[in-house]
Amino acid sequence: MDYDPPFLETYNTLLQGANNISDINDHKSSMVQKCDEIPLIDLKRLKLSHLEREECMKEISEAARKWGFFQVVNHGVSQEVLERMHFQQKEVFRTSFVIKSQENFLNLPSRSYRWGNSFATNPKQFMWSEALHMFVPDLAKMIHHHKSLRSTIEDFVTVVTPLAEKLVEILAQELNIKFNYFQKNCSSNTCYLRLNRYPLCPFPSKVIGFLPHADSSFLTIVHQDHIGGLQLMKHGNWIPVKPNSQALIVNIGDLFQALSNGVYKSVEHRVIAAEKVERFSMAYFYSPSIDAVIESYATPPLYKKFTFGEYKDQIMKDVKEGGDKVGLSRFLL
Ligand SMILES: C=C1C[C@]23C[C@@]1(O)CC[C@H]2[C@@]12CC[C@H](O)[C@@](C)(C(=O)O1)[C@H]2[C@@H]3C(=O)O
Ligand SMILES: O=C(O)CCC(=O)C(=O)O
Ligand SMILES: [Fe+2]
């Protein structure tokens, strides 16, 4: 069978004798714990009585401290927009690999389309997935005949940005961080959107869909389809995030962990590959401009002060050298 993208050809030598490669769950922090579930928070209470609003805000802040991950319903992003996004995403990934991997695919900057992990230094770092990683301002460059993809993404960005802002405002308020820090440094034009596709994988126990990682954002908002496969690390166990088509998944990113001096947790997560079903997800990364300074709100700080540009450069350097992101630990004091 031919795979699109051509993972097998590329990973071939390293995958030869897949039986000799250890399973993705063969290391100590590998138990999959099915009973624990991330909090599900109903945001409609933000518009109800003062008491209900306060209760909802507390739940958000507690989930960010304890889990770094939660799901929200009544979030204001309509099912119609989410369904259109999934439809458009399926369409764009259906484009032939030869076209997708062209430098100027969709007229986006080179390397916006990514597949697998071209920097993998060992089979554990392979990724059985492809992605379109877009910087929101670049959408304006998307060519005319992709008008429906572009306008759908724009519609999504228009509604998901205020949601991200609302959540960040609540999280900031709970720690007495001034919200105008975010107003000064972030807008939809400093954010990223990532569309992910996880094609059928012939050896799902040997390769990962998406490597364990933490996000390099303040906050990420994800919508996954009905398949499942996203897992987060908690107390040494992988906890699956149950698909819920009505819900959006929210997770704290590295930048909020640094800003909150470790109070809010940027938690490692991964996506396992599946043999019989393909899977789609989308992630909106609420991130600041490149020159924004990230500095702990409390003393003594756990991390050195850095700009988002410095953070991204360090990640790229680590990925190029070792096949994977090191992340916030690089900035520990
Ligand atoms: C192969 C990789 C892509 C990625 C860095 C990594 O080594 C594993 C994590 C990936 C991720 C996920 C969150 C963000 O989108 C991202 C920019 C990040 O910092 O880590 C991406 C990286 C990327 O796409 O370059
Ligand atoms: O596919 C998913 O559910 C999550 C993807 C993800 O973690 C990411 O794009 O950063
Ligand atoms: Fe992620």
Automatic annotation (TrEMBL):
<dbReference type="GO" id="GO:0016491">
    <property type="term" value="F:oxidoreductase activity"/>
</dbReference>
<dbReference type="InterPro" id="IPR050231">
    <property type="entry name" value="Iron_ascorbate_oxido_reductase"/>
</dbReference>
<keyword id="KW-0479">Metal-binding</keyword>
<dbReference type="InterPro" id="IPR026992">
    <property type="entry name" value="DIOX_N"/>
</dbReference>
<comment type="similarity">
    <text>Belongs to the iron/ascorbate-dependent oxidoreductase family.</text>
</comment>
<keyword id="KW-0560">Oxidoreductase</keyword>
<dbReference type="InterPro" id="IPR027443">
    <property type="entry name" value="IPNS-like_sf"/>
</dbReference>
<dbReference type="GO" id="GO:0046872">
    <property type="term" value="F:metal ion binding"/>
</dbReference>
<keyword id="KW-0408">Iron</keyword>
<dbReference type="InterPro" id="IPR044861">
    <property type="entry name" value="IPNS-like_FE2OG_OXY"/>
</dbReference>
<protein>
    <submittedName>
        <fullName>Gibberellin 2-beta-dioxygenase 8-like</fullName>
    </submittedName>
</protein>
<dbReference type="Pfam" id="PF14226">
    <property type="entry name" value="DIOX_N"/>
</dbReference>
<dbReference type="Pfam" id="PF03171">
    <property type="entry name" value="2OG-FeII_Oxy"/>
</dbReference>
<dbReference type="InterPro" id="IPR005123">
    <property type="entry name" value="Oxoglu/Fe-dep_dioxygenase_dom"/>
</dbReference>
<feature type="domain" description="Fe2OG dioxygenase">
    <location>
        <begin position="187"/>
        <end position="288"/>
    </location>
</feature>
